[in-house]
Amino acid sequence: MLINPARLLSQAREEGRALAAFNIYNLETLQGVAAAAARAGSPLLLQASPATVLFAGAKYLAAMARAAAQTWQIPVALHLDHATSFDLVAECLEAGFTSVMYDGSRLPLAENIANTRKVVHMAARYGAAVEGELGQVGSAYLNPDDELYTDPLQAREFAEATSVDMLAVAVGTAHGVYKGEPHLDFARLAEIAREVKTPLVLHGGSGIPAAAIRKAISLGVAKVNFGTELKIPFTKILMEELAQLGDKSPERFDPRKYMAAAREAVEKVATAKVAMCWIQTAQRSADYDSQ
Ligand SMILES: [Zn+2]
User: Fold this and answer.
1) Given a cut of 70, is residue 260 above it in pLDDT?
2) I need a labelling partner for 212 at 20 to 30 A (CA). Which of 47, 277, 284, 290 fits?
3) How far apart are alpha carbons 278 and 276 in whole angstroms?
4) Residue 1: inside a domain
5) CATH code where residue 227 lies
6) CA of 257 to the centre of ligand 1 (A)
7) Average pLDDT taken over every residue of the chain
């Protein structure tokens, strides 16, 4: 059974912690993040982008997420990240996703509200949660444009008009690998949090220092998305493992061996992210505080 993460997220916001939301790509990345969450005693929030759904298939993703919940006996939610198509939202809800993001951030406000409301109605039929986005979280390859940051009063209007369960905000983070040190607009985040009681979502969590992540969480962020920081070590370790196989005989080409190493790399990163987001200050080990 997969859970709707809405209540967990509201509770997390009240408690000053957040769920690390992990973008997964295949069985091994899913297993890596699941082991990390379970071993830390944290619920698991898995997410798949539209490109991942296209690659892996909504039904496979839902089945693998259910298998993680059964294996580890922890609450697991499966979220569709950055959907812009109603058809994809419908397909994922039907497959068993328990949460969906509708990304209308590039649309005019009224259209973003109308489309997000439509998705809220679609999700309600499945008992699933909805994330909306206001302001634009861009790509880390471009300089963040504060013109596209979330306006606190508009955020309130959006949250009230749509009744989303979580709201993605643009406050200086971006998707991909940051060129320099990212600067978060904490004053704006605090203002948004004053206007909006809905759990806030920070996209582009990869590469943001732990201290900044924690500060964002203390200001109302209850979900922090991590994708890039998982797929880079997964791929790097895989490349190293495969390079080592170079001149060995093909009989030794064993996916169970090289995939295991890549999966461990994902688990290691995810463990640090869970400690950063979910585990409350008093429980954090000195190791993580020094990262
Ligand atoms: Zn995102």
Assistant:
1) yes
2) 47
3) 6
4) no
5) 3.20.20.70
6) 32
7) 93
